[in-house]
Amino acid sequence: MKFKAVLFDLDGTLLNTLTDLTISINHMLKEHGYPLRTEREIRSFLGNGARNLVEKSLPAGCDEKTVDRCLKEYLAYYNLHANDNTAPYQGILELIDELHRRGVKTAVLSNKGDVQVKALAKQHFPQISFALGEKEGLRRKPCTDGVDYALKELGASYESTALMGDSEVDGQTAHNAGIAFLAAGWGFRDKEDLMKCKPDLFLDHPLDLLKNWEA
Description:
This protein has 10 helices and 8 strands. By secondary structure, it is an alpha/beta fold. It has 2 domains: 5-16 and 87-211, HAD superfamily/HAD-like (Rossmann fold, 3-Layer(aba) Sandwich); 18-81, DNA polymerase, domain 1, CATH 1.10.150.
């Protein structure tokens, strides 16, 4: 499976951000006296942006004003602590280096806030061409706005591009855009969930992509 461009999701695909996300959500919840969440719960809430994460983490029945206030508080804390425990998954740096050696273009495409995405990508993956997160004027995944923007920036075709991600949102995004979906089995979803997305290739480890490169 050769590709000329690979788009990567960030959380759960390139970076294990779960601990920092959980700590940040629980900091916000504790400030309001709400029940705290486990990493397993936070893991299941991820994939559709920060507001969705906060809404699902809050007790049922919270109104919009509460969600707005808690989202602001969560982001303020997370922006200061997004890198405390966050690190690339084993094999990711080697994969990106090898893709670049082979002339494959790469980019990050995430539903995380654009400022956070750019900061994390710059620190951990300076060799990646560019990073794009949720921002005004671009609908987040599973809409194809980000894919369209990325391929224009990279000068790549849909036929030769793959999206590597760890969630149903990533799978739907790839299918909506007509590009290949590479399921990241080390991320925030179980294999059974990812297989329902009908990936073009399921990967147990990042370097498995290279093992299947000529297939």
